[in-house]
Amino acid sequence: MSHTYVVVAEVRGGGLRQVSLEALQAVSLIKEEGDSVAAVIIGSQITPLADELARYVLGQVYSVDHPDLENYNPETYFSVLSSILSKLNPSAVIFGHTAVGRDLAPMVAAHLDAGQISDVTAIDSEGNDLLFMRPLYAGKAFEQKKFVNTPQVITIRPNNISPAEVASTPADIIEIDYSPTSNLRSIVKDVIRKTSGKVDLTEAKIIVSGGRGVKSTEGFKPLEELAEVLHGAVGASRAACDAGYCDYSMQIGQTGKVVTPEIYIACGISGAIQHMAGMSQSHVIIAINKDPEAPIFKVADYGIVGDLFEVVPLLTEEFRKV
Ligand code: FAD
C-alpha cells in the first residue's frame, strides 16, 4: 500500500523557513518507493515561495494565497489545511517544531485522529520500525518513539535534520482558492515583531549569546558585530533580559527559546542549568568567560578565559579577514 506524506511549509519574514526544507528531508527518511509527497504553503503573495518550495518537492505543492492569510491565525490556517488534508488522506503530516507548527500540529492530529510525536531531532530505522528521537528533561535524556498506526503527525526541531536537496523535477503547483469567512472568532490585526536580528534565532547556524557579563545594552554591540560578520543571530541569558539589556525574544533556555545551532558562542554567561536547557544540544559550544571556574566550561568544546570586551572584538576582527 502506498502512502501520502504532507509537509506543512512555513513562511516567515517574506521567506520560506529553513525548517520546512528539513521537514521535507524528514519525509525522504520515512517514505518508500511509490509513496507520494505533497507540501502545503499558506500566506499572502507567496507565488515566488511556492515556486521555490516546488524545487524541493517530488510531488505537488498546494498553495493557498490570499491577503487575509498574511498573518498566522489558527482558525483560518486550520480550516484551509484541514480541507486540503481531508482530500489527500495522508499517512503522515510533518511540521517544523516552531510556534506555528506547535500550535497547528495538535489540531491536525485531533482532526485526523492521529498520533503525534513532537520535537523530533533524528529518525532512525530498526527492522521495519521507524524510531523518532526526541529530547526530554531539557536535553538531559532522550527517548525513541515509534508510531503503532497511521495517520501520524510529526514536528521536527529546527537545525537537526539536514535540509532537502533540490528535486530532479519540480513539483506541480496547485492553487487552492480561499474564501474569507465572516464568522471568525478572532482576527489578527497586526503582528509587532520584537526581534531586530536578520537571522531567526531558532534557525540560526551561529548564535552569539550574551549574559549578565555583557553589563548593558551597549555591551551587546560587540556581540552584534561578531554575529553580523558570522551571519549569525544574537541570543541572551535570562539574567541579561531581566536586567533590561535586551529583549525577552532573545532569551535562550528553559523558559526561553531552545536552539541547536552549529556554533553557540556564550559570552559572559555562567552556564546555569536553566540556560543550558536551551543550548546544550548545540553542535559546537564556545564559551568566553573571565571566571575559569564558570560551569559553562564543563559543556563547552572550546573555552576562552578572558574579558569578553577584549576577546569578542578580536574575534570579529579576525573573522572579517576571512
Ligand atoms: P550570571 O550567572 O550572573 O553569570 C554572568 C557570567 O558573566 C559570570 O560567569 C561571570 O564570570 C561572567 N562575566 C562577567 N563579566 C565578564 C566579562 N567582562 N567577560 C567575560 N565574562 C564575564 N536563565 C536563562 O538563561 N534562560 C532561561 O530560560 C532561564 N529560565 C529560568 C527558569 C527558572 C524557573 C529559573 C528559576 C531560572 C531561570 N533562568 C534562566 C535563570 C538562571 O537560573 C540564571 O540565573 C541565568 O541563566 C544566569 O544568567 P547569566 O549566566 O547571564 O548570569
From TrEMBL:
UniProt keywords, alphabetically: Electron transport, FAD, Flavoprotein, Transport
GO biological process, one term: fatty acid beta-oxidation using acyl-CoA dehydrogenase
Swiss-Prot/TrEMBL cofactor(s): FAD
Keyword RNA-binding appears in the UniProt entry: no
CDD domains: ETF_alpha (cd01715)
GO molecular function: electron transfer activity; flavin adenine dinucleotide binding
Similarity comment: Belongs to the ETF alpha-subunit/FixB family.
PANTHER family, alphabetized: ELECTRON TRANSFER FLAVOPROTEIN ALPHA, ELECTRON TRANSFER FLAVOPROTEIN SUBUNIT ALPHA, MITOCHONDRIAL
Name of the protein described by the UniProt record: Electron transfer flavoprotein
